[in-house]
Amino acid sequence: MIGSTISHYRITSQLGEGGMGVVYEAEDINLGRRVALKFLSPSMANDDNLLQRFQREARAASSLNHPNICTIHGIEQDENQHFIIMELLDGESLADRIRRGPIDIDAVLQLSVQIVDALESAHSKGIVHRDLKPANIFVTSRGEAKILDFGLAKIDRQKSDAASNVPTAIADELTSAGSTMGTVAYMSPEQARGEVTDTRTDLFSVGTVIYQTATGVLPFQGETSAMVFDSILNRDPISVTQVNPSLPAELDRILGQSLEKDRELRYQSATDLKTALKRLKRDLDSGRHSSETNAIHSTRAPQMVHDHSIAVLYFENLSGMNEDEYLRDGITEDITTELSKIKGLRTFSRAMVLKYRDKSVTAGQVGKELGASYVLTGSLRRAGARLRINAQLVDAATDFPLWSERYDREMEDVFEVQDEIASKIAAALRITLTPQEQQALAAKPTENLQAYDLYLRGRNYARRVGRQDLQIAVQMYENAVALDPGFALAHAGLANVCAQYYYHFERQQQWLDRAIAATRKSSTNGNDAPEVKLAEAWVDYAEKRNEEAVNKIRQALERDPDLDGGYYLLGRSLFDAGRYHEIVAVMEDALAHAGENYNTTIPIHNALGALGKTDALNNYLHREVAIYETHLKKVPEDARVRILLAGDYAKQGRLEDAKREADMAVALRPDDAMVLYNVACSFCAMNKPQDAMNALKKAWDAGYRDPAWTRQDPDLAILHGEPEFERLYPPADALAA
Questions:
Q1: For 245, which DSSP code?
Q2: What is the DSSP code string of 190-208?
Q3: For the structural domain made of 5-87, what CATH number should be given?
Q4: How confident is the model at residue 398 (pLDDT cuts 50, 70, 90)?
């Protein structure tokens, strides 16, 4: 065919040949661009099943717009010849790259993250590839992965209908259970058994690809297909660190979970696998930096050569009373903070253990999924002024308890209990505490337990941001500092909410003055705790000193990545400054440390929208919805999260669900400016600009009057140019004039 012209494509050379046809390089005469043409073999054009598979490849891939998926420009027929027009790529297949020799771990992780990110995009639209293998992954000359060949893709009709503009190209006879499809060595166990497949099938296959990319060999081998099937179904692969000792042990854990034969024990989403890979990449980069500087190693105590990592699960609230939830969460988080003060221990962030709260899981399960050596479990029950705490430290590898203790104390002894738990865990792990660590563990935030209780309650309300919620938080913090005027954390909390109240609801100087006064009291005697720096940053942000706010909050997060609300304010400050790429750059870290503070999601959402990253935003919506739905199970009265959820439902086309949540949010907080603002965002997602404008005017009347955020918010883009919108929220240059 070389030299011939098909339709308006002049074929110049052959690029490759496969089981279904041949791929050529061609010139699009009409557009003057080089493309690749994939022709279905004439002998197969009369086979309806193969023709449907060929057409489905084009339709599935063309519905995806992702930098790591080969772009499909179209599918055409010229007489009896069927062909797909594709992006022309410069490079080689991953299969060819693997044959040339080992690939270093940095390149392995870079390619793996790109591949899984592409799968995340496909899965969000209901598309399962089902034939992932190195031959179907292209590596460009710039080192970018591109997934090819969606010929075996399965499209979920229900999910694709819910996602706008995704074609439903399902062919039931091609996707039914009972037929094994895909390349044997990369099949999942469920594929090998001919069972119904889902997104987790791709995660097994990509785990196989990563294993081979890192080691040069396949995890499941055999001289015949039957022997390979048996290996996939019944045998565990050799550890990658045994095949290649230079590989990190954490990669072994990640691949172990990806290659679980029981899909219920596998990673449950591409997002989870991508997060694990990105975290490993970050840790390796950080480790290299540390070894180069030698700053840490020169001051480490001898015990730090041991890898002691511990996951502190949220204690069980045995009282069953909702009003004790804040206490359960507060004590658990404080114990995590206490343990983080011990240099011989690596603790997992609150967000990483949040999914196990109130779930029946074993220490072994948690350890395997997180890579934790030890797991701390416990329960608490409050009865009047007494508190009963049970705590148990478990070896995750053996599920054997190393230490357990029961504390039956007065509430006023809670700090001593936290100190003792941390010290006993260190002793159980044979970690010798330095005098400085002992002093840090013994330090108390306040001597007044009632003030501490009020502080925890205030923090719980402050996360909801609504007018009434912030007012309650102010009262809680003020009562706490009245009981203990030296309680720095409570002063910082008060400054934080006063600055937020000024910013969101009432631009009256009295709120800013109260915030400034509280920050000064919180920093008395040189106290520069991360919570204090956060409060100071909120004052900077409220007074539009974005750069100062960003610098302070980054300093605070370096010391405490789990700082409650830290990444939320960093995101807001960067968004106001138009620094959207910086928000996306810290996105995974922000979500990993968000804990209970769902507000962290908001600047990320807006940054993805402002950058026009449509696919990434659609993928992110699924994560947001899961966070909001989980929170509502615990706090159904939280109006703010309901209206945020309504907006996401609207973007997903779930209009009835969106209306239900919006109606409930307005019923809970009918005059709250933040709720009304997000009602406007929801109406925009439903393409109801007039209703959105009415809601936005109500938000203005209720106190929300920030033009910078509102004009940059991509959710409100359809209102730009509306006379009332321009009057209320004029451009920055108009304000300056």
A1: T
A2: HHHTT----HHHHHHHHHH
A3: 3.30.200.20
A4: confident
| Residue 533 half-sphere exposure toward CB, CA atoms < 13 A | 21
* Lowest mean pLDDT segment, chosen from 26-30, 293-297, 518-522, 531-535: 293-297
Q: CB under 8 Å to 619, separation ≥6 — which residues?
A: 120, 121, 124, 271
Owner of token pair 């480490």: 300
Beta carbons within 10 angstroms of residue 404's beta carbon: 14
Distances (CA, A) of 254 to 130, 137, 177, 279, 537: 20, 21, 28, 11, 37
Q: Are residues 214 and 105 in contact, defined by beta-carbon separation less than 8 angstroms?
A: yes
Asked if 30 contacts 8 with a C-beta cutoff of 8 angstroms, the reply is yes
CB atoms within 10 A of CB 22: 16
- The third-level CATH classification (topology) of the domain covering 91-285 is Transferase(Phosphotransferase); domain 1 (1.10.510)
Q: Of the ranges 5-9, 57-61, 412-416, 431-435, which is most confident?
A: 5-9
Token pair, residue 83, equals 């062909």
Give 380's strand partners: 317, 389
pTM above 0.90, yes or no: no
Rounded to whole angstroms, the Cα distance separating 457 from 460 reads 5
In the numeric block, the tokens 């591949």 are attached to 115
Residue 516 CA to residue 495 CA, distance in Å, equals 7
Rounded to whole angstroms, how far apart are CA atoms 490 and 482?
Answer: 10
Domain ranges of the chain: 5-87, 91-285, 302-442
Q: Does the pLDDT value for residue 671 go beyond 50?
A: yes
For helices 414-428 and 435-442, angle between their N-to-C axes, nearest 10 degrees: 150
Sign, Cα dihedral of 410, 414, 418, 420: negative
Give the Cα separation of 101 and 98 in Å (integer).
Answer: 6
- The predicted pLDDT at position 496 comes to 95
**Beta bridge partners of residue 38, listed in sequence order:** 23, 84
Closest-CA residue to 719 (of 698, 686, 679, 690): 690
206 close to 119: Cβ distance less than 8 angstroms: yes
For the chain, percent of residues with pLDDT exceeding 70: 88
For residue 461, give the nearest of 453, 471, 451 by alpha carbon.
471
- Does residue 50 register a pLDDT over 60? yes
Helix (H, G, I), strand (E, B) or coil at 495: helix
CATH code for 302-442? Answer: 3.40.50.10070
476 pLDDT more than 70: yes
Catalytic one among 28, 90, 131, 307? 131
Question: Which amino acid, 656?
Answer: E
Residue type, 313: L
Strands 309-312 and 374-383: parallel
Cα-Cα-Cα-Cα dihedral sign, residues 611, 617, 620, 626:
positive
Using 50, 70 and 90 to split pLDDT, how confident is the model at 211? Answer: very high
- Nearest alpha carbon to residue 344 among 436, 247, 444: 436
One DSSP character per residue, 136-202 reads GEEEETTS-EEE---TT-EE-HHHHHHSTT------HHHH-TT---S-GGG--HHHHTT----HHHH
Among this protein's residues, is 47 annotated catalytic?
no
Hey, which bits of 326-476 come out as E strands? Answer: 346-347, 374-383, 386-395, 400-410
Structure token pair of residue 400:
């054997």
